[in-house]
Structures are given as structure tokens and as C-alpha cells.
């Protein structure tokens, strides 16, 4: 049972990445647009307006994006009828329990509410049920996929035969969405109030709360649940929307200038009400800025320490892994190849990493050094956010990053040597007895080595992948040879549940997956959610 549940969670994680993968492009478009016209939101430049609106087509419609991507990703055969059902289901929910609809049901005019009544209305969260609600998008995507998998082969009587099979799925999804809306009409205010209260509690703690968030974010990386935590702080689920408000640039600044009280100021997330004015510059972005010193500088410093402490005979392989991971972390903010390199072999180092991340986020928030990102806290996003009017003393994050490089390097080097931690290149010779592949081994060679380490093709029942990992379900986990898999030059290995193995490859995972799929295509293995022929 546990393996089945975890397998379903793996598939959900991959489906979510279908939506997340589109966001960096949108953020880049908006970032360039802001760079061209940082004050006018495109009003002063046609090119900027086009870029910002093109990016907004994604970031302003996250709910639809997640509904479609999750439905498509979880449905058997990835059929378009599931994607259509996801869109239709989400649209139904928006029309039935969006803020305007609920206000009409209750005879309320939100624009005329004041004081406690206005705060109570905000706390119910109806304003968060809009085109950007990723949480509801995910739920509707799951509902649409379930409907497709359950009813796409249903046959109706002859006089209704036209609506049978896949054509039935959007119809049923819209009906189920009505039921879902009824349930959410009751449940949503309760759920949102809890999320809102938690988010506001963290916001109320200021830099300390930001630090707590930073530590928790890193500690949840091994489970993948950091995505759920990020939804609260980065997106409009609980009213914080740190990414959206930061990318809003001059629009957010204008909204802050128009705020007349603490309630309207609180609607801008991490904004600070002084008693007479709403401040957003230096506050909005506090849940993002502190990640830049860690991802651009800290983790590369750790990579250098792991390389220098590797055994001479293994420096070449360790160096290749560390250099690739450091490059990915610095430029894109993708940290998994590095983090998984020491997460399980040296958990104490990972705990130190989590604490240092929390300190960085807290310090950046305390000094009001802010920068934002659309994908992750790497060099690309730093360059794009530097021209955003919401960025405040962003260059100090680079100064802090240089300091963090030496802190990470020094702490990691000392702890690795002091406690003889088995980081990459320091494994016992017996544990690494199986010859590793050459650093420049082809994807096909890596795939064959991984398959062999998993017990061969006959032992693999499901092979899938997400952003950085191969996700595998094996028939007998006792025959999995971890040493053989690690010898393939992978970044890490996770055994999250019985019969479940995750092989951490890095951003190039798709190519290793394609090579493995070519090897396994005729072995009766379920590939990428597809049933074997």
C-alpha cells in the first residue's frame, strides 16, 4: 500500500513539473520587459509591454496551467481529453465560487467593506480563488485525471454513443467540478483561514520567520514537500504571493501607495504598515532574496571543499560531479545535484546547510536586501531582477554571497576532514570496488549501468522521471545494488519506500531516461506512466 501511494505521489510530482517548467520562460520574458521599462509596466515601451504580457499569460493563469498540466500528466496515455477536462473543471470552479460569485450569494459588496468586516472577508479567502490559484488547479487536475482514467473507456447506450469514451470525460468532469465547488464553498474558508493565519504568523515574525521558512524549505527537499511549503509563501494561496508581488514591480508599488490601512497593506503579503504608509520595497521578496547567496555562492563553496577533500585517485570523477553541480547551482539555482551528493552520506552536513540557508534568508530580510526569481535563485534570475523596482540593495546579496562562499567552504572542509565524512570521492575502497564509468560516459552507458544496478530489466516494473531524478519501481528491492548505480556517476540515490528507488541525475535526466527507456521498451516495463504493450 505504501509503495502504491508513494508511486502516485511520484507521478504527481512529475505532473507538477510540467507546469513549473513553463514558468522560467515567463519570468525571463517579464524580467526583460521590466529591464526595458522598470517604471511603466510596459506603458512607456511597446516591446516591454509585449514581453510583460506574454509572461503574464503564464504567471497570471497559474490555476489553469496546473489544472491542465496535472490532468495531462496523470492521465493514462497523456490524452488531450484529460487536459481539456482540467481546463473546463477549473473554469467551472472559478465561475461558481470565485469572489464575485460568492459575494453575490451572500449579498456582500467587498469594495464597501471596512475595518473588521473587511479583514474577515479577506480571511475567508474568496479573493484567492482566481486564475492564479495553483492549489485548486492541482486538485482539479487530479480530479480530471481520475475521471479520465476511470471513465474514458465507458460505453453508453446506442442513442448516447456519441458521448461515450473520451468524449464523456469533459462532461463528467464539469459535473464533478460542481460537486467539488459545493464542498469547497464550505471547506475553503476553514482551510484558507488556517493557511492565512500560518502565513501571517510567519510574516509577523519578520526576519526570524523568514529564517524559519528557509530552514524548513531545505529540510523538506528530500521529501519533495518543499513545493507545498513554497506555495504558501511564494504564491497567492495564503495571501503572501512573494514571487507574484515582487514580479509586479511598479504595479505593487502603486498598490502600496493606494493602501489606506493595515488590512489593505496586508493584502500585499510581506508589506509593512508603518501606521501611515504601506512599505513594500525592501519587504516584498524577503522569502526569496536570502536564497541567492546560498545557491550562487554557498553551495559552489561546498562543492570546492568536497572536491579538495576527495582522494587523489577519485578527484577526476568527484571534480566532474562537483563542477557540474556547482555550475547548475550558480547559473540556474538548481541545487539537487549538489545537495543529493552529500544529503545522505553526510546528513550532518545537510543539517548545517539547512541552518546556513535559514540564517541567509533571515539576514537578507533583516537588512531589507531583496531580489526575486521566477524559477530559482541563480545568476540568470539575479540579473533579471536587478532592474525590477522592487529589488532593494540586491548587490549586497552578492557581497553576502562571497562571504557565504568562504563560510561554506571552510565549514564543509573542516567537518569533512574532522569526522572523515564519506562525501563524493571519499568512499571506502571496498564500497567503490565496482569500477565507475568514465566521466564522459554516454547517456546510453549510464542507463545500462543503472539498469544493471537496479537488478536488470526483469526487476523493473515502472520507470519515470521528473526534473532531476529517475523514479523507479522495482519488483524486488533486495537485489538493487546501490554501489553499481552510484558507479554510473549519478548525483545520488534515494530509497523512499519499499520497491521504490530514485536515482538523482540532474538537469540532464531526460536524456538518461530516454536511453533507459530505449533499453527497456520491449521488457514489459511501464514507461512514463504508459502501460507496456
The strands making up the biggest β-sheet line up spatially as 5-6-4-3-7
> Strand pairing plus helix content: what structural class?
mainly alpha
What share of the residues lie within helices?
Answer: 55-70%
Shape: globular
Rg, Å, rounded: 24 Å
Instruction: Count up the helices.
Output: 23
Intertermini distance: 25 Å
Low-confidence stretches: 430-435
Helix and strand run = HHHHHHHHHHHHHHEEHHHHHHHEEHEEHE
Mean pLDDT: 84
Description:
The protein has 533 residues and is mainly alpha-helical. The protein is built from 23 helices and seven strands. The protein has helices spanning 2-20, 23-36, 46-59, 62-74, 80-97, 99-106, 115-124, 134-151, 168-204, 207-219, 226-234, 242-247, 250-258, 262-266, 291-308, 315-332, 336-342, 347-366, 379-385, 395-418, 443-453, 482-486, 509-520, and strands at 272-273, 278-279, 460-465, 469-474, 492-497, 500-504, 526-527. Strands 5-6-4-3-7 form a five-stranded mixed β-sheet. A two-stranded antiparallel ribbon has the order 1-2. A hairpin with a 4-residue loop joins strand 1 (272-273) and strand 2 (278-279). Helix 1 crosses helix 4.
